[in-house]
Amino acid sequence: MTDKIMECITNPVKCKLLLEIYSQERATAKHLSDVLSDIPQATLYRNLKKMLNDGLIKVVEKKQVRGTVESTYALALNLNSEFEAILAENSGPLYMQLFMQYFLGFAKQFREYCKSPNIDIKKDMSGFSLSHLYLSDEELIELMKNISNIIKMVEKNEPKAERKLRTLGIIVTPPEN
User: Fold this and answer.
1) What is the chain written as a DSSP string?
2) Which residues are within 8 A (CB) of 6 and not within 5 positions of it... i.e. 6 or more apart?
3) Residue ranges making up the domain that contains 40
4) Helices 2-10 and 79-89, interaxial angle, to 10°?
5) How many CB atoms are closer than 10 A to CB 21?
6) From CA 84, how far away is CA 75, in angstroms rounded?
7) Does residue 174 lie in a domain region?
8) What's the rounded Cα separation, in Å, for the pair 21 and 34?
9) Is the pLDDT score of 106 beyond 90?
10) How many domains would you assign to the chain?
11) How many whole angstroms separate alpha carbon 119 and alpha carbon 145?
12) Please, what sign has the CA dihedral across residues 1, 174, 150, 11?
């Protein structure tokens, strides 16, 4: 299952779908299409079917809507327990593979933005930074809780004309020796 999750992380369409379903807990294809309007409908359905066949998502509800059946999707796995399994194994190479897939997926998304003919770095408020901080374990835990709380305040925002889908990535490196 880890391979399926990692493949999903590095595929920008599947990653967006997985994150939206995860953040909403349940989502219909219509909701996904509305929120992720940059994904063509055929691509969205093809990837949902693949993710369903791979066991990453499941159908939790079906209802009749104007002559068709609308499925509601949810995650079929517990991402936290999958990550916990990687942590329990405490494998440096597996952890590095997971990081590289995360990093490459993020880099691929960033590359697509940089290749866009409409790029406007300042207007789009795109950027990145590194902060080198001396923190105790307790201070790091508190900092991450605060960042998480700030993100929770906006993660359920609905799409609106003035809102753009943005991706925020956070990496905490291990302490230097």
Assistant:
1) -HHHHHHHHHSHHHHHHHHHHHHHSSEEHHHHHHHTTTS-HHHHHHHHHHHHHTTSEEEEEEEEETTEEEEEEEESS-HHHHHHHHHHHT-HHHHHHHHHHHHHHHHHHHHHHHH-TT--HHHHT-----------HHHHHHHHHHHHHHHHTTTTPPP-TT----------PPPP-
2) 97, 98, 101
3) 1-124
4) 110
5) 22
6) 17
7) no
8) 13
9) no
10) 1
11) 33
12) negative
67-105 per-position pLDDT tens digit: 888 999 998 876 666 677 777 888 777 777 677 667 767
Residues in the chain: 177
Which residue's structure tokens are 């066949």?
Answer: 53
Domain presence at residue 170: no
CATH of the domain at 74: 1.10.10.10
Are 58 and 73 contacting, i.e. CB atoms less than 8 angstroms apart? yes
Beta carbons within 10 angstroms of residue 7's beta carbon: 16
81: its two tokens: 């327990």
pTM above 0.90, yes or no: no
Residue 11 belongs to some domain of the structure: yes
The pLDDT tens digits for 12-60 are 888 888 878 887 889 999 999 998 888 999 999 999 999 999 988 999 9
Domain-embedded: residue 142: no
